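re: that complex we talked abt at group meeting.

here r the seqs, copy pasted straight from the sheet so there may be weird spacing, ignore it
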Amino acid sequence: MTTVFYIAAAVALVSTFLVVTRLNAVHALLYLIVSLLSVALIFFLLGAHFAAAFEVIVYAGAIMVLFVFVIMMLNLGPLAVGQERQWVRPHTWIGPSILVCILGAELVWVLSRGGSKAAAVAEVTPKEVGIALFGPYLMGVEMASMLLLAGLVGAYHLGRRTSSGAAVNRRRGND
Amino acid sequence: MGQIPTEHGLILAGLLFILGLVGLLVRRNVIFMLLAVEIMLNAAGLAFVAAGARWNQPDGQVMFIFVLTMAAAEVSVGLALVLLLYQEFKTLDADAASRLRD
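got the structure back, here u go
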């Protein structure tokens, strides 16, 4: 099981290095998703199944989708189609695909060995996490909800100001 | 087939954090800087979970969930700022917005 951990750690380091060095934002996003998935596998190996599921759903799912949306919004225009065709060229996918295949093979191997039970890893179950979250950490949950509300209001405010700001710019242009 | 050493998990978290920090310092594209911040937050979460697994306590995962919440709020506001920056300066270069008021 430690070998699996070291391979996943190597995949995480390689893909993170490639994120930092890519010039194209979409290529960097692909590698970042690989990096997050490998960290999720490491969480699984550490016995933190709940955190692993969260990593895949929230990080590799929701937050990366936000990035993809913004990158797509920044590239509206006649060049966008050609650019998109360039982004999804097959050889772009080779690197991330190889790394993901390594991770997938590891996951299949671990599951075929009986999951983390075979590794004698003490699992911290989601139940324990939930009891801790809504017991001693209840104030933290409330603060997190306030933080999310502040993020929501802030993003909404910034988004609103863009439309009115554009209107101001247009007016300036007409004058 | 032994237990994963906690030190190695923490070393991995440190290396990931350093990679994210270097990316944040080296890149000038705002999107890449936000990605580097995500890498650093993720590394911090990995350190929390590794430490929580060491003591077999749920506190590490609880802190990871808080880090995740913070990252989600940060990235939503950050990407809204990126869109504003792009509409204002027509570029994603962070140095273009180095002056607070012109």
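couple things i noticed - The helical segments of chain B are 6-26, 30-55, 59-89. The mean pLDDT of chain B is 88.
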